[in-house]
Amino acid sequence: MSEIGLPTVLLSPRQVASESIGVRRLLIAVALGFLTLFLVLPLAIVFSEALSRGPVAYVAALLDPDARAAIALTLTVAAIVVPLNAAFGIAAAWAIAKFDFVGKNLLITLIDLPLSVSPVVAGLVFVLTFGAQGLLGPWAAAHGLQIIFALPGVALATLFITFPFVARELIPLMQQIGSAEEEVALTLGASGWKTFLTVTLPNVKWALLYGVLLCDARAMGEFGAVSVVSGHIRGLTNTIPLQVEILYNEYDVAGAFSLASLLAFLALVTLGFKSWLEWRSDRGVAGQAAR
Amino acid sequence: MTLSIAGAAFKKPSALPGFAPALGATVLYLTLIVLLPLGALIAKASTLGFAGLWAVAMEPRVLAALKTTFGVSFAAALIDVVFGAIVAWTLTRYRFPGRRLVDALVDLPFALPTAVAGIALAALYAPNGWLGAPLAAIGVKVAFTRLGILVALTFVGLPFVVRTVQPLIEELDKELEEASATLGASRLRTLLRVALPPLIPALLAGLALAFARGVGEYGSVIFIAGNIAYVSEIAPLLVVVKLEEYDYAGATGVAAIMLAVSFVMLLTINLLHAWSRRRLGDV
Predict the structure, then answer these.
(1) pLDDT digits (tens, 9 = 90+) for B134-169
(2) Of A118, B27, B128, B224, which residue is least crowded by CB atoms under 10 Å?
(3) Interface mutation target, options B12, B31, B32, B34, chain A, most CBs of A under 10 Å
(4) In whole angstroms, what is the distance from residue B88 CA to residue B78 CA?
(5) CA B255 to chain CA mean position, Å
(6) pLDDT for res A12
(7) pTM assigned to the model
(8) Is residue B118 part of a domain?
């Protein structure tokens, strides 16, 4: 508005307060070039290599007995890990977002802790806990429990790694929403459970779903932690990522990428779902969708 | 309910139910899944003592791996800060076809399993790969060198920088830039003196996050690195190698050193967040 009164200014402040068209194009080109090099090409080569021997070989690689065993184990681990971490993510979010108590920030930091621990170290801690020389190793052996180099070890390491995913999606959203609606429901006579199921849950359902999807994608794709505790017993304790590693090291590149393409596809679904949630909340359809 | 009397000072009163079971379940689960296992590591590390840890760190092969891990992680984090800032700025300030798709793609390193990223990068930069072949023609070798580790760590660290900086660019007050322009500053000067300063804490936090992630990264690195002792071995790999040799003390030592660095980084990141909040609060 003020520029009308300033005839000497040739460009409006809005135009001056941006880069020239040449600089813009250069920056866009740099950004897109960098992302193509580091993100698009790695993604493209997964599918290109997977299909390099044709669709028949692709399907055959997925139906190989070791591959099927790996897929089954991965699905089993995810079926154990995701519901547990979802349940505890909800409990943690309820305690943290709806109440004020001493040590809350410490608790939030501790929940985030697995994110800053190297996956390999996450695997190591379970070997040190339950391995033959570990703290609980003799106890587990005395009770005939095989934990390390078996399904329980793989599940525990995955639980550790994916512990924060659901809680992290829910806590900020539930803090932002506040507890006024729950208080109204309780005042009107609803029980605590009914309030949670009919008031809280509908408000956070998309964030919960996204957290579950993130948790699932990571649970199925975890490599470092699982690699340390699994013992690499083919057909028994190999998850999809471990089977990918074995195939790749045996120079069955197409086979490795065929299995890898399943996980890459899951990653793309996760990204697509997140974009859809953001698009929804940008348009204000949900108003309260995740981030 | 039983907690309400004893916990009066511990918790602010609230009309909502379920505090004790929710908190109790969370703390119990956290203790069993995260704290006790980490405690086992710390217990094992403390039997080594400081001298024992120092001896592990000073083994030539461990020392070389630690140097590689920290050095290359830092270099990759710096690359991510530069290009991540450009990507974040471009995605926030400019409109171009496919922007939403590109924005979604930035999270790929979060979502793609590390082993998948690892074999993809290894295949890309192999001597006969899409990028490896042209690079080999000009004499640049990426696979099985530290350069390969740099590529992998740049990949995993990128979203940490972009997603840390992006929200702050969105919040930048454009009127300040307009004021600076009308007062006669060139665009470059406006960017450096007006737009950049509020972003610095976020850029540093992004640097710390990308660095911390790089130090612990395993899956996406080991395939492209080739894992040649003293050349392209990373610290997480040595944990695995020592475990395979049943050298539990050695593995614990390397892990404890990595864990200590992660905690320092976590602390740094929290301090940077606090600094950033204070700065923005002043405006």
Answers:
(1) 999 999 999 999 999 999 999 999 999 999 999 999
(2) B128
(3) B34
(4) 15
(5) 17
(6) 61
(7) 0.89
(8) yes
